[in-house]
Amino acid sequence: MLKNAAFTLSIFVVVALALIFPQAFSYIGDYKTTGLIVPLLMIIMFGMGTSVGVDDFARVVKMPKSIAVGLICQYTIMPFIGVSLAMLSGFPPEIAAGIILVGCSPGGLASNVMAYISGANLALSLSLTAFSTLLAPFLTPVLMSALAGQHVPIDAIAMFWSITKIVILPVIGGLLFNHFLHGKFPMVDKNMPRLSMIGIVVIIAVITAAGRDNLITLGLALIAIVLLQNILGLALGYAVAKLVKMDEASARAIAFEVGMQNSGLASGIAVEMGKVATMGIAPAVFGPTMNINGSILASFWRKTANAEN
């Protein structure tokens, strides 16, 4: 819990600094820091791969209904929420497309942390994150073309390659590392989670600096939209899971998986499209927002579970 609180606090601090001193986060000498986003995401995805083993994929055989419900919720509820809020917001087209992009992204790694804290079905959470990520190169471009094409031009093939490069190849590299070299490089095993957290903080700082003007202009309105997007995702994910009579621990896992998106990947896609200062803003705001909401909900569920026991 302390580590999670420190992570969230770090995000607040760098966002504040990036808003006040954007130039300090925009360049290192003559190098534009937005060029760091994709490499950092690849490192984070490699880290995800190193934490996943064959046993994680074997879980799918044991819980096909739960996996199916989770994936269907992931790629229907959040895209629908994203496009609905984008239409209601009245934001400029590229900002609105960023809201939709968050909705069309796979589940984020933070969902696994919240599932663990809350006492949810962690095995289900890990499996859903892995499989929604593997499906992202195929489903995210299709959904973006259908739902955001009226806001910005979407090149589905280019987006497929971007997601493959940022996510799939590093994850496969991490899987191979875990399978063949696990335990042989203890420093890597120990420090990858920490390095991933640092990477996320840096990415958010860079995007905040790049989109500072848009963020200041939209301010509270954008925060309110992504806050609602996150809360609706958590609530509807949980509600649908309970509606199909899933147990409490699994319903909680699906709630976190649906409501907590891979905002880092959404940011990387915005970078690849050359729209980090516009499409990248909603993902940058969504990241801290979902961590705060997720922490509150996970703590509440943990307390209720302890009270029941």
Tell me the span between the first and last alpha carbons: 20 Å
Number of domains: 1
CATH fold description: Na+/H+ antiporter like fold
Count of individual beta strands = 2
The biggest sheet amounts to: 2 strands, antiparallel
> What proportion of the residues form beta strands (DSSP E)?
under 5%
Low-confidence stretches: none
Please tally the helical runs, counting DSSP H or I stretches of 4 or more residues.
15
The ordered string of helix (H) and strand (E) elements is HHEEHHHHHHHHHHHHH
Measured on Cα atoms, how large is the radius of gyration? Answer: 18 Å
CATH architecture: Up-down Bundle
Word description of this protein:
There is one protein chain. The protein has 309 residues and is mainly alpha-helical. The chain has one domain (2-13, 37-308): Na+/H+ antiporter like fold. The protein is built from 15 helices and 2 strands. It has a two-stranded antiparallel sheet with strand order 1-2. It is globular and about 50 Å long. It starts with a helix and ends with a helix. The mean pLDDT is 84.
Fold topology:
Blueprint: H1 2-20, H2 22-26, E1 27-28, E2 31-32, H3 37-50, H4 54-62, H5 64-74, H6 77-89, H7 93-103, H8 110-118, H9 122-148, H10 156-181, H11 186-210, H12 212-243, H13 248-259, H14 263-272, H15 281-308
Helix pairs in contact: 1-11, 1-15, 3-10, 3-11, 4-9, 5-9, 5-13, 6-7, 6-12, 7-9, 7-15, 8-9, 8-13, 8-15, 9-10, 9-13, 10-14, 11-15, 12-13, 12-15, 14-15
